[in-house]
Every structure is written in structure tokens, then in C-alpha cells.
């Protein structure tokens, strides 16, 4: 059974905390966390402009703190979700031998949107565009988990 879900991006201050925040608000019965493939922002709260954009939609990210993705996460979670192809490659590089935890792109759960990644708003500055995509995909993820 899929009950523990980890969202992963590069910095763990924009996309993955936003995905975690949107998902936990919608489906609080799951255990969730988020992590970054880099260690650049360990201990940091989500990026201010992303917190502000999320808060405008009723999503509070203020309690979240960045940490780095580690190989042990493959055993601690039932499903690992990355935001772009680089995240997936970096995650897979740490997969323990014999582990078969599924690793998927968040956009896989929003096929109707036609995006193959969540563009990084830290660079694009389009925090609302990222949240639109995240909300669509989280809706699809929730439906997928309900089967
Ligand atoms: P995220 O965005 O991966 O969505 O958290 C980033 C945040 C910070 C940096 C890169 C991406 N950075 O280079 O510090």
C-alpha cells in the first residue's frame, strides 16, 4: 500500500515543499515529506515568494524545513516523486541495490496538462505557474492513489 510519499526537487525550498503542502492539505491521511537532491538549503524554510504564492491559495508552508535526499529515503517511503528529469536521475543514482520503490515525475499525474516537468520557479520567477501545475498534478496523484 502506498502511504508514505516523498516529494523531491533540487533545492527543497520551492517546488517540492509546495507539492508537499498542496498534497497534505488535500490528502492529510498520508505521511508526507520533501527533500532536495542538493544540500544547498538544508534547514531553510521554503523560499519567501513561494510561501507567499501558496498562502494566497490557502496553503501554509511555514513549518517546512529543507533537507537533503538520502539513499535511506528509498526504504522510508513507498513513492518518490521528482519535479524534473534531473531530479529523477539524481534520485536514481542513490537507489540501493535491490530496492524497487517507484520513482515518478509529478507531471506524470497530470497528463492532460502536457508538461514533462515542473519548471523551477527559483529561475523562472513564475511561482503561480508552478503552483497551477502542482495543483493539477496533485489532483491526479490523489485520484491515482485512490485507484
Ligand atoms: P527548487 O528551486 O528546486 O524548486 O527548490 C531551487 C531553489 C534554489 C536553488 C535552485 C533551485 N538554488 O540554486 O539555490
Low-confidence stretches: none
Taking Cα atoms only, what radius of gyration do you get, to the nearest Å?
14 Å
Per CATH, the superfamily is Response regulator
The side-by-side strand order for the widest beta sheet comes to 2-1-3-4
Query: Could you tell me the mean pLDDT?
Result: 98
User: How many individual domains?
Assistant: 1
Determine the strand fraction and express it as a percent band: 5-15%
Distance between the termini: 11 Å
Q: State the secondary-structure class.
A: alpha/beta
Protein model, in words:
It is a single chain. With 147 residues, the chain is an alpha/beta fold. It has a single domain, classed as Rossmann fold (3-Layer(aba) Sandwich). The chain is built from six helices and four strands. It has helices at 15-26, 48-55, 73-76, 85-92, 121-124, 127-146; strands spanning 4-9, 31-36, 79-82, 103-105. It has a four-stranded parallel beta sheet, with helices on both faces. The termini are close together. The model has no long low-confidence stretch (mean pLDDT 98). Bound molecules: 4-nitrophenyl phosphate (4NP). 4-nitrophenyl phosphate (4NP) is lined by residues 9-15, 40, 120, 122.
Amino acid at each position: 500500500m502506498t502511504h508514505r510519499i516523498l516529494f523531491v526537487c533540487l533545492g527543497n525550498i520551492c517546488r517540492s515543499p509546495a507539492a508537499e503542502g498542496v498534497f497534505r492539505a488535500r490528502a492529510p491521511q498520508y505521511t508526507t515529506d520533501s527533500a532536495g537532491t542538493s544540500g544547498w538549503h538544508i534547514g531553510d524554510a521554503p523560499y519567501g515568494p513561494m510561501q507567499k504564492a501558496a498562502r494566497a491559495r490557502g496553503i501554509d508552508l511555514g513549518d517546512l524545513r529543507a533537507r537533503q535526499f538520502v539513499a535511506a529515503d528509498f526504504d522510508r517511503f513507498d513513492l518518490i516523486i521528482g519535479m524534473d528529469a534531473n531530479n529523477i536521475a539524481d534520485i536514481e543514482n542513490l537507489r540501493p541495490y535491490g530496492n524497487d520503490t517507484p520513482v515518478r515525475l509529478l507531471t506524470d499525474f497530470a497528463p492532460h496538462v502536457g508538461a514533462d516537468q515542473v519548471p523551477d520557479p527559483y529561475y523562472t520567477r513564475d511561482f503561480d505557474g508552478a503552483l497551477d501545475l502542482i495543483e493539477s498534478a496533485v489532483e491526479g496523484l490523489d485520484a491515482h492513489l485512490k485507484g
